[in-house]
Structure formats: structure tokens, C-alpha cells
Amino acid sequence: MRFETEAIHAGQEPDRTTGAVTVPIYATSTFAQDAPGRHRGYEYSRTDNPTRHALEVVLAALEGVDPESQGGAVSTASGMAATALIGYLLQPGDHVLLPNDAYGGTFRFFARVLAEQGVAWSSVDMTDRRLLETAVRPQTKLVWIETPTNPLLRLVDIEHAAGVAHGRGAHLVVDNTFATPYLQQPLAAGADVVLHSTTKYLGGHSDTVGGALVTGAPDLFEKLRFLLNAAGPVPGPFDAWLVLRGLKTLAVRMERHGANAARVAAFLADHPAVKEVIYPGLSNHPQHELATRQMTGFGGMVSFRAGGGAPVAARVASSTRLFLLAESLGGVESLIEVPAVMTHASVQGTELQVPDDLVRLSVGLEHIDDLLEDLDQALRS
Length: 381
Ligand code: P1T
Hints:
Layout: H1 3-9, H2 50-62, E1 72-76, H3 79-87, E2 95-99, H4 104-114, E3 120-124, H5 129-135, E4 140-146, H6 158-167, E5 171-175, H7 180-183, E6 193-197, E7 211-215, H8 218-231, H9 237-248, H10 250-269, E8 276-278, H11 288-294, E9 301-305, H12 309-319, E10 324-325, E11 335-337, E12 358-362, H13 368-379
The structure holds ligand P1T.
């Protein structure tokens, strides 16, 4: 089955007793057993729940996990809960290599939580292959990449990073939140684990917080399933259901997010009040060629610098009417934010700088002319 079909059907057969065509929200904490220890597949909802299970089946299918491989997906209570589960795979003395441009929360977790427990980390500009190759240490257990990165939309060559990680016996984790499996398939390119904040495009409607880890490796999948149950950061059935519903339209939404974002990027590139536009689909993006090769589209995120520093960025972000001033991304509604003082405030003052005049747009599904008019009036304000 193809992507669009799997998104609607994988793990989502009509309900056996009622024929319901959508997976029910199994709002139950526990399941009656036929005899002590003899249950019908489910015991307790932290361990497994049918709504969550359906979500995990479809997530694994969309990330291209071969059903025969015994790999799979685990869904978590948030993207950061997925990151934290990965953290449990590490021991004191291990080293993690991070990109020098990543979601602020990811950096905060490794720098301020795991580092306290003796897991070392360092960061490097992973757009530079040589720097990536030399930054891996004998103790490196994990190479973490985000591509495109949040918020600078830089790309990392997944196949190359997988080669570097595996050459040193490390695992490669790819945060695929910005691209989604519709535009990018990291496991096929050699990644060991794909991470998602399903809060974003996979849910797609800004109405839930969730996360997921997907792997084609049976041993890693078993460990992650064990850790999910042992540590317990599971999504509730309603949240799992919201993501399940969002996934059904992921393909069409990503097409329109990408089409609108391309128009926004072209409009900003021509605008006299804009100094620099960052969008992987623009031919002047430093990794446009890699984007064309590694992704099947360029996504819905656009970043730009208005020039004039932080006050101008703040003014523009406060002046839009349709683009809502808010953190997060990937929903049907367009959002605008200033990473230096919002999503990435926790990493400012460290090596992981984002320019203070950077404005990040999550381009939604409104009519493109309304979006362009809104940006134009805000830039002229
Ligand atoms: O917010 P949560 O669902 O826990 O996901 C964390 C996360 C992980 N990876 C990436 C690439 C992300 O962008 C995020 C969350 N990001 C935002 C909230 C934001 O506005 O950028």
C-alpha cells in the first residue's frame, strides 16, 4: 500500500464487534481477564491500549518499517517524553553528539538533565561533513540529528550521518518532526530511530501534545517498548486518537503547507523590508541540492530576518493578524514566533545561538492571498 492509503487504513480495520469505521477511543485504564493472567491482548493501559496500538501501527507503516522486521513504533505523551525515553538508553560515561542548531528543549534535556547524570554531550555544525566526522568520539553512543533544523532550517545528510555513526558503533536518531514521513524517510536512509513531536504536523490541528519513536531494529523496539511501560510516559487514548485522525490527512495537508510556504518564501525574498529568507525550497538555500535529493518536498516552515534587530522582529511578530503569535508549529493555522525569546530562549547565551532578529513562520492552510496580505501589512507596520 502507498503512503496515503496506509495513513487511512494501516492498523485501522473496522471494529470487530460494531463495524465502527474509525478506531474507538478506548477510555479504559484496565481490561477484564478471562482467568488470572489470561487476557485478550490487553491488560493495563500504561502497558498497551487499543487506540494507542492503532496509532503505533500506522506510525510504523508511514515511516516505512517492514512489518516482517519486528521493528515498530512507540507513542509517547510528548515529543520530549520520546527524547527522554532515548535518554534511558544511555549510561554515565556515554557521549551524545548533537547538532549546534536544534529544538531548544532537546538541547536543554541533554545539557541540563542527562549531563547531570554523567552523560557527556557536545554539539557541532552538522551541515559540515568533516566537522561531523571529527566530532564523533570513542564514547559516542548516539548521534542526534534534526533535519531540517528548528529554527534555522539547515539540512543534514542522513545517509552520511548514518555512515559516520555506524562506523563508530553509535546509533543515529533523526528528529523528523519538521519534514514528517511524507517528505522524508530517515529509516530508509540508514537511521536507527526516528523521533517525532506528533504535536506538530502529524496531529496537525494544534489540539494535542504527543510524541513517537519509530525503529526498524527489533532489539531497539523491544527496549523502547519496555522503557515506555517501565517509565510510563504514555499518551492517553484521546490524545492517541487525535493523532490517528490527523494522520489520515497528513499527505494532503503537507502538499498544501508546502505550496503555501513556497509562495510565502518567494514573497518574502522579494520584499524590501526583508534581509534574508531561509527556506530549503529556495535555490539560494545552502543545501537546496540536498533538500531536493533527501526530501520529496520542502515543508511548511519558513524563517526570515527582517533586519533591524530584535525590536523589528518583535514588531513584525506582534503585527500579524492571521499568523498567530505562538510557539509550536504544524497546525492548520499559521503561526509566527521569535525563537530567540520564545522557543529557543533556553539556549541563548550558549553556543547554540539563533539570531535575535529571526522570525519563524509555520505556514498554515489558509488562503495564500490572505497570508501574503497579512505578512505585507505586518512588514510595513
Ligand atoms: O513539544 P513536544 O511535543 O514535547 O516536542 C518537542 C520537540 C521536539 N522536536 C522538535 C523538532 C520540536 O520542534 C519540538 C517542539 N517544538 C516546539 C514547541 C516549537 O515551537 O518549536
